[in-house]
Amino acid sequence: MSYRPQRMKFGAFIAPFHSDRLNPTLALESDLELVCHMDRLGFDEAWIGEHHSGAYECIASPEIMIAALAERTRHIRLATGVSSLAYHHPLILADRIAQLDHLTRGRLIFGVGPGQLIADSYMMGVDPAHLRRRMGESLEALVRLLHGETVSMQTDWFTLREARLQILPYQAPSVEMSVASAISPTGARAAGQHGIGMLSVAASSPEGFKALATSWEICEQKAREHGKTVSRDRWRVVTPVHIAETREQALRDLEYGLMDMFRYISKIGGDLFGEVKTFDQAVELWTSGGLGAFGVGLIGTPDDLVERIEQLLEQSGGFGSFLVLAHNAASPEATRKSYDLIARYVMPRFQHSNANRTASLDWAAANANRFMEAYVGGINAAIKLHADEQAASAPAPEPAN
Length: 401
Hints:
Blueprint: E1 9-14, H1 24-41, E2 45-48, H2 62-72, E3 77-84, H3 90-103, E4 108-113, H4 118-123, H5 131-146, E5 151-154, E6 159-163, E7 176-181, H6 186-194, E8 197-200, H7 206-225, E9 235-243, H8 247-253, H9 258-268, H10 279-288, E10 298-300, H11 302-316, E11 321-325, H12 332-351, H13 355-366, H14 368-393
Parallel strand pairs: 1-2, 1-11, 2-3, 3-4, 4-7, 7-8, 8-9, 9-10, 9-11
Antiparallel strand pairs: 5-6
């Protein structure tokens, strides 16, 4: 039996994926509008990515987007999804995160990773082979700094000399943190070592799905080794999703931009994915597992998504949050409708929102005849009482002459 949270959290992982033909100002605005829409629908989290090349994943600073969103939203938690640790000096990044945690009044989640796009690391002169090592070194410093420690460290790419934060995060004892995990065990090991959350960004890919079976075991093992504790409630899995009232409608919705998304994937993937020439080819490839870390896409209905989440729960042993990989393969209107359907019909299934409502209806149905008998009896008694009163107050008939 897999772990089932009392209330599973739902959110979106927004890289984002915007066509290079779209006005960049409006592209960024559409991301802000989507998160505001999610806030109104009751979603729990929105994760904002960091990328510096490739044109489509066009957010360079998740912190700036989160600051803007903090002013536009009321409840939803906002996360860096993720900050690429290999590209930042840990003291400067820790300072920015602590400040942002205050500006969001503790709604911030600090998501971290090594850096995803190889073109980013090339432009900065960072050897991709060292990205995960750099992440580990930076994460060690960040966890300590954000807990208020004074840190001295020397690596081949940063130096800390009696470094400490001027202000600590709004959250105590520190800002909530989560580390990205794809297919390799690096993320699971880091999450356990530092006692922080884990973010499985490739959960629906064939290899990522397979890794779900052992990821938590690795995380718990490293936590024990380092005297830390971890919770499945802070394990998040990511899957690309688009749903509509029918599967046919969901497919029609993706005619808007699925091919454009594949144009981007084929360009950054080189020969890995090959050329996709038709919409049907794109659908087949996306739903059969041919996109690596982008994951297997779900195109269907709310019931289809419920089934997919159940599969992920069974494979992983249980997690606390489900995140939709935002993809912009459907129009903004169809995308908002997809999130609306998730909020209306999928989230209640895993948050037990209607448990008492269902029980109440079942109880009312089981007792309907008994209640109706008393109800009708009451009506008949009221009618008889009125008739008796009318008869008693009626004047006596005139005597006959």
